[in-house]
C-alpha cells in the first residue's frame, strides 16, 4: 500500500522545470496589465510609496508608468529583450538601466519587477534536503550573465506552484535579498499572490512591499507600446 | 499664435464616452481612518488608474486610460549668493551677487481620444537680484548702484506645448513645442541642434524644447523620424510671436535690447538677414545587438547659428557592457565652423587693434565659416551604479573646432582688448536664460578642444541625504568648475538642496598670456564662487 502511494505521488509530481514554468505563468503571464503599489521601508522607519501601472506582452516586453510620488510622476520604464530604460520627464529622454540596479531606490531590483521570467534565465533543480510538507524547494542557477541574481532558492506550494518565499544570492554565495509571497487574491478569475515583501539582507532594517491593486490578463497591447520612442507619449 | 489654441484645447477637451474609466474600483472608497501606508497607497492607486477588482464579479474588461487631465508640477525657490570676480573677462556689470528665483511650474496632459493627447509644461519665473559690484577709480571693489537687469525680469517659459496623435500604432504625428533629444550623452549632446542647451552640471534644469512638427514611424526594432523646426526669432512675455523670417520692421524686442545694450556689442547683431531660419532633421533609430543606435541628418539655414544651407550628420550609440557598465558615444560632423576667431595680428596691443580698425580688418571674424574641413564634436562616456547605489558618470568631449593654444591666446587677447575698450563678452558660463528657455545655473560654451565631465552621486548617505559632485574640466589648461551638492529628500514631495559652484583656474598649466597676465579658459567665468540654496516642492 505504501509503495503504491509512493508510486502514485511520483507519477503526479511535477519536475522542477515544470514547477518553474508554472511559477512563471503565475508571476509573469504572457500578457497582463496591472496596477501596483510599492512601499519602501527605510532604515529610519520612514516609508516611500510608489504607484504604478505595468503592462506586459510576451516574454520580454514590459512597460511601467509611475503615478506617485509627485517627484516620480511622468517617469516610465521599459524592458525590451535584455534592455531596460527609464524615461525621465525632466530631461525628456530615456536612460539605460542595468537589471541589477535598485528599482526606484527600493529593495527590489529592476529585474525583480521587469524580468519575472525565471525559466529563460535560470536552470533549475530540486534543492537538496527534505522540504516542508506540501512544499517544493527549487534551486535556480543563473545560466546567463544578464540574469538578475546568480542563484535563487524558491519555496513553492507543491500543488499549485504558488510561491511562498524566495532567497536571492550573489555569485559569492552571499544572501542579498529574501522575499515572502502572500495574500493570494482572485483577480478577475486569475489567482496569484497579491503581495510580495522583499527584505534587503545587506541592510536588514530595510524592506519593500509590492502589492497588486488590479491584475488583468484580458489585454492586447500593440508591440509599438514597447519601443523606445513611445516613452513619454 | 498656436499657444492660446492649445491652451483652450487643454481646458475644453471633452471626455469621450469610450474613454471613461471602467467600473468604479471596489477599493476606491473614502479613506478609512487608521489605514496604513500600503492600504492608503492601494486606494489612491485604484483611484488614479482605475481598477481594484479582485473578484470574479468585477468587470474583466481591460482598464481604459483615464481620460482626465493630469496636472502636476512643482514650486521652486532658489537663493543664490555669488562672489563676482571683477578681474574676469566676462561682463559683470549686470551680475547681482544675491539673487532669488521663484519658479511655479505646471505640467498638463490631456487625452483627446484613445490615440491622441495634448501636453504642456510651463513655468512662471519671478526673480530679484541686488548687490552689484564694480571697481572704483582706484581699482578698489565697491558696491555699484542697483539697477534693472533684463534677465531678472519676471518671465513665463513655455517649455512644451504639443499635440501628439497616432492614427495607427506605427505612425505618430507631433506638432507644437517639444524637447526632442536623440543623442545618448548626459552632460552634453553634440547632436542636439534643436533645443536650448542643457546645464551640464544638472541636465534636469533645462526642459525647454523647440517649435517642431515631427513624424515618427516606429517598428519593433527601428524608428524613422522626420522633423521640421522653424526658428523662433522673437518672443514676448515668454510666448513666441515671430517665426522663420525677421520682419521688415524693428520689433519691440529689438528696440528694447538696443536700448539696453546700445551699440556696445562685441559680435555683430545677427538680426539683419532676410533669410528663412529653419532646420530639417531625419533620424533612424535601431535596436541592434542590445545597442541603441541613432543615425541623424540635419539640413539647416541660419537655425540658431549663421550657417546657410548646411548639412550635418550625427551618430549616437549606447549599450550596457559587462552587466553594469553603460557605454555611450555621440558625434556630430560639421563642415566648417561658425566660431569667431580673433585676428592675432590685431590683438597683440591696443595699437594693433586700432590699426586694424582703421584698415577695416575685423578683430573677431568667422574665418572658418566656409571651410571645407570636417569638424567633429564627439562625446564618449560611461556610467555605472555601484552596490551601495552610488552612481558614477564619466564623459569626455572633443570639440573639433575648439581653439588651438594659439587661437585661444588670440581670443583671450581680443577679449582683454575689448574689455579695455568698454565692450565685454556677455558669456562665460554664468548661466541665465536663453531666449524662451528656463534659466540655468551654468551654461557650457566650450572654447577649447578637450573636456571631461565627471558626476558622482551617493544617495542615502544618511536618511534621505544625497551627496553629489560634478566636475567639468578643460583638459588643456586644467581649468574648470566643481560643483558639490547635498540634497535632502525631506518629504516625498519636498527636496532641499545646498550646492556650491567653484571655478578652478589657478593651475599653471596651458595658460595663455595677454598683456602680462596669465589666463585659463575659466578665467572668463565671472564668479569666484557661487552658493545655491534651493527648495523644490512637487505636487
Concise structural overview:
With 233 residues, chain A is mainly beta. In chain A, 14% of the residues lie in helices and 46% in strands.
Q: What are the main properties of this structure?
A:
heterodimer, A: 233 residues, mainly beta, outer membrane lipoprotein receptor (LolB), chain A, 13-stranded antiparallel β-sheet, 4 helices, 14% helix, B: 539 residues, Porin, 2 domains, 18-stranded antiparallel barrel, two-stranded antiparallel sheet, 26 strands, 44% strand, disordered N terminus
CATH architecture tag of chain A: Clam
What's the number of extended β-strand segments of chain A? 13
CATH fold descriptor of the largest domain in chain B: Porin
Most residues in contact: chain pair: A-B, 67 and 73 residues
Number of distinct helices of chain B? 5
Helical proportion of chain B? 10-25%
What is the distance, rounded to the nearest whole angstrom, between the alpha carbons of the first and last residues of chain A? 65 Å
| CATH-level-4 superfamily name of the largest domain in chain B | Porin
Oligomer: heterodimer
Global mean pLDDT of chain B: 83
Query: What are the segments of chain B in which pLDDT stays under 50 over at least 5 consecutive residues?
Result: 1-31, 55-65
Amino acid at each position: 500500500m505504501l509503495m503504491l502511494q509512493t508510486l502514485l505521488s511520483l507519477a503526479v509530481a511535477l519536475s522542477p522545470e515544470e514547477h518553474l514554468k508554472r511559477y512563471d505563468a503565475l508571476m509573469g503571464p504572457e500578457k497582463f496589465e496591472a496596477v501596483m503599489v510599492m512601499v519602501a521601508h527605510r532604515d529610519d522607519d520612514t516609508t516611500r510609496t510608489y504607484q504604478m501601472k505595468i503592462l506586459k506582452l510576451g516574454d520580454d516586453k514590459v512597460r511601467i508608468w509611475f503615478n506617485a510620488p509627485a517627484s516620480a510622476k511622468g517617469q516610465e520604464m521599459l524592458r525590451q529583450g535584455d534592455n531596460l530604460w527609464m524615461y525621465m520627464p525632466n530631461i525628456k529622454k530615456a536612460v539605460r538601466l542595468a537589471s541589477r540596479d535598485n528599482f526606484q531606490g527600493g529593495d527590489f531590483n529592476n529585474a525583480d519587477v521587469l524580468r519575472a521570467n525565471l525559466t529563460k534565465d535560470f536552470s533549475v533543480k530540486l534543492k537538496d534536503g527534505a522540504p516542508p510538507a506540501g512544499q517544493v524547494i527549487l534551486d535556480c542557477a543563473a545560466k546567463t550573465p544578464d540574469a538578475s541574481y546568480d542563484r535563487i532558492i524558491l519555496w513553492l506550494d507543491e500543488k499549485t506552484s504558488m510561491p511562498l518565499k524566495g532567497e536571492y544570492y550573489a555569485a559569492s554565495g552571499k544572501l542579498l535579498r529574501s522575499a515572502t509571497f502572500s495574500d493570494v487574491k482572485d483577480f478577475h478569475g486569475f489567482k496569484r499572490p497579491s503581495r510580495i515583501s522583499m527584505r534587503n539582507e545587506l541592510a536588514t532594517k530595510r524592506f519593500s512591499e509590492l502589492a497588486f491593486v488590479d491584475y488583468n490578463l484580458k489585454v492586447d497591447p500593440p508591440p509599438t507600446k514597447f519601443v523606445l520612442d513611445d516613452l513619454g507619449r | 499664435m498656436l499657444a492660446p489654441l492649445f491652451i483652450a484645447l487643454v481646458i475644453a477637451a471633452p471626455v469621450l464616452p469610450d474613454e471613461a474609466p471602467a467600473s468604479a474600483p471596489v477599493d476606491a472608497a473614502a479613506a478609512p481612518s487608521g489605514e496604513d501606508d500600503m492600504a492608503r497607497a492601494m486606494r489612491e492607486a485604484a483611484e488614479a488608474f482605475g481598477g481594484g477588482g479582485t473578484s470574479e464579479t468585477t468587470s474583466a474588461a481591460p482598464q481604459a486610460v483615464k481620460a482626465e487631465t493630469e496636472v502636476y508640477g512643482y514650486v521652486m525657490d532658489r537663493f543664490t549668493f555669488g562672489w563676482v570676480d571683477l578681474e574676469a573677462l566676462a561682463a559683470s556689470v549686470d551680475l547681482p551677487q544675491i539673487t532669488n528665483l521663484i519658479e511655479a511650474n505646471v505640467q498638463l496632459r490631456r487625452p483627446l481620444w484613445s490615440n491622441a493627447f495634448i501636453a504642456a509644461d510651463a513655468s512662471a519665473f519671478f526673480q530679484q537680484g541686488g548687490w552689484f559690484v564694480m571697481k572704483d577709480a582706484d581699482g578698489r571693489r565697491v558696491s555699484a548702484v542697483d539697477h534693472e537687469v533684463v534677465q531678472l525680469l519676471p518671465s513665463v517659459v513655455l517649455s512644451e506645448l504639443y499635440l501628439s496623435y497616432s492614427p495607427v500604432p506605427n505612425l505618430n504625428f507631433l506638432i507644437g513645442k517639444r524637447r526632442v533629444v536623440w543623442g545618448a550623452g548626459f552632460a552634453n549632446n553634440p547632436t542636439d541642434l534643436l533645443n536650448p542647451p542643457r546645464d551640464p552640471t544638472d541636465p534636469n534644469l533645462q526642459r525647454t524644447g523647440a517649435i517642431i512638427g515631427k513624424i515618427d514611424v516606429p517598428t519593433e526594432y527601428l524608428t524613422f523620424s522626420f522633423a521640421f523646426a522653424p526658428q523662433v526669432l522673437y518672443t514676448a512675455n515668454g510666448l513666441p510671436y515671430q517665426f522663420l523670417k525677421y520682419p521688415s520692421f524693428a520689433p519691440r524686442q529689438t528696440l528694447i535690447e538696443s536700448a539696453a545694450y546700445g551699440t556696445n556689442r562685441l559680435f555683430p547683431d545677427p538680426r539683419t538677414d532676410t533669410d528663412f531660419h529653419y532646420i530639417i532633421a531625419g533620424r533612424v533609430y535601431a535596436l541592434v545587438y542590445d545597442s541603441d543606435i541613432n543615425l541623424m541628418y540635419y539640413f539647416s539655414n541660419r537655425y540658431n547659428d549663421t550657417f546657410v544651407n548646411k548639412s550635418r550628420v550625427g551618430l549616437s550609440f549606447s549599450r550596457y557592457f559587462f552587466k553594469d557598465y553603460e557605454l555611450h558615444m555621440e558625434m556630430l560632423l560639421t563642415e566648417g565652423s561658425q566660431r569667431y576667431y580673433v585676428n592675432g595680428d590685431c590683438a597683440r596691443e591696443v595699437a594693433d587693434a586700432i590699426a586694424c580698425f582703421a584698415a577695416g580688418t575685423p578683430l573677431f571674424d568667422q574665418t572658418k565659416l566656409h571651410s571645407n574641413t570636417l569638424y567633429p564634436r564627439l562625446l564618449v562616456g560611461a556610467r555605472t551604479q555601484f552596490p551601495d547605489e552610488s552612481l558614477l558618470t564619466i564623459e569626455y568631449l572633443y570639440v573639433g573646432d575648439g581653439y588651438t593654444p594659439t587661437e585661444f591666446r588670440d581670443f583671450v587677447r581680443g577679449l582683454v582688448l575689448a574689455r579695455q575698450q568698454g565692450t565685454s563678452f556677455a558669456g562665460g558660463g554664468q548661466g541665465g536664460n536663453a531666449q524662451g528657455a528656463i534659466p540655468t545655473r551654468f551654461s557650457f560654451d566650450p572654447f577649447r578642444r578637450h573636456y571631461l565631465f565627471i558626476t558622482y552621486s551617493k544617495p542615502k548617505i544618511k536618511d534621505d541625504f544625497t551627496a553629489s559632485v560634478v566636475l567639468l574640466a578643460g583638459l588643456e589648461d586644467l581649468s574648470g568648475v566643481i560643483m558639490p551638492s547635498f540634497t535632502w529628500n525631506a518629504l516625498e514631495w519636498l527636496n532641499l538642496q545646498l550646492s556650491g559652484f567653484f571655478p578652478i583656474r589657478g593651475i599653471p598649466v596651458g595658460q595663455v598670456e595677454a598683456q602680462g597676465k596669465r589666463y585659463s579658459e575659466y578665467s572668463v567665468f565671472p564668479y569666484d564662487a557661487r552658493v545655491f540654496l534651493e527648495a523644490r516642492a512637487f505636487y
